[in-house]
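Table S4 entry, Microcin C ABC transporter permease YejB.
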Amino acid sequence: MGAYIARRLLLVIPTLLGILIINFVLVQFVPGGPVEQIIAQMEGGGDVFENIAGGGSDVEIQTTGANDRYVGGRGLPPEFIEELERQYGLDKPPLERFFKMLWDYARFDFGESYFRSTSVIDLILEKMPVSITLGLWSTLIAYVISIPLGIRKAVRDGSSFDTWTSGIIIMAYAIPGFLFAILLLVLFAGGSYWQVFPLRGLTSDNWDQLSLLGKIGDYFWHITLPVLASTISAFATLTLLTKNSFLDEIKKHYVMTARAKGLSERKVLYGHVFRNAMLIVIAGFPAVFIGVFFGGSVIIETIFSLDGLGRLGYEAAVARDYPVVFGTLYMFGLIGLLTGILSDLMYVLVDPRIDFERREG
C-alpha cells in the first residue's frame, strides 16, 4: 500500500502542473488585467469590464508599442504605466513569469495580492476555516442522515415509506442550493417571517467576550442555515446511492446463505451487507466533500456574507488579482487530489481485502 500511495502522491505533481498551465495560458488572452483595472479606476471608469463592454471610458488594449497598449492611459505618463507593469511583474515575458510562478509555488510562496496588500497564503489561511466549516459539516450531516435513511429505504423497498421519502428526496434534489438558501433567509433570518438565526457572518460581534460554551453555541447558531443550504443536494444523492447499493448486495447469494443459516436480519444487514454496500458510498466521499467545498461555496458564502475561499476566489477573478486566483486554484487542486488519495485509504480501512498494489500489478 505504501508504494501505491507514493505513486499517487507523485501523480499530484503533473496534475497540478497541467492545471496551472491551462489556466495560465487562458489568462494571457483574457482582457482587463490589473494594469487596466488601475487605469480605469484612475479615470473614473470604476470597472474595466464596463469599458470593455462598451461603456465608461476608453480603456482598451492594443498590440502596438509598449507605451501605447493602454489607450485609456494616454493621459498618464508612460513611466507610470511601466512602473505599474513592473509592480505587477507584467514587464517580463509570459514564459519567464510562468517558470517563476512554478518555482515559488513549489515552496508554497504565492506572493502578495495585487489589491489587498497582504500575502496570498495569509489570505488563504484566513478564509479557509469558513470553507472547511461548510464543506466538513455539510458532508458529515449528509452521511449521518443519508446512510440510515438509505438502508431503511432498501429494507422497505416498494413500501409507502419508500415512496413518500423518495418524493421528498427528489424534490430536495431538484431545488437549487442558492434558492433554498434564499428561502431559509426569508423564513428564518428575519426576511419576512421569523428572526431565529443571524443574517450574516460566522460569529457574533461580541465573540471575544463569550465563554467557551457561548462561543460553541454562537458558532453553531451562525452555521445552521449555510450548512443546511449546502447539504440538501448531497443528502438526496447519497440517500439514493446508499439504497441502490444495499439493494444490489441484498440480492446476492451470500445474503441468502446467511439468512438460511438462521442469522438475524440485523446481523445480516450490518454484519455482512453493510461492509460491501458501503464501499461505493465511501468512494463518493471525496466528490461530496469537494462538491460542497468548491462548487457551492461561492454562492452560499455570498448569500450568507461568509468570507471564505469561494468568495475570495470569485472576487479575485473579477478584479484580476492573479496571485490570489492562482493561489486559490493551486490549493483547491491540491486539496482535491489529496482527498482522492484519502478515499483509497478509506477503502482499505473498510475492507482490508482490497489491495491496490496487487490490482495494479
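The radius of gyration is 26 Å.
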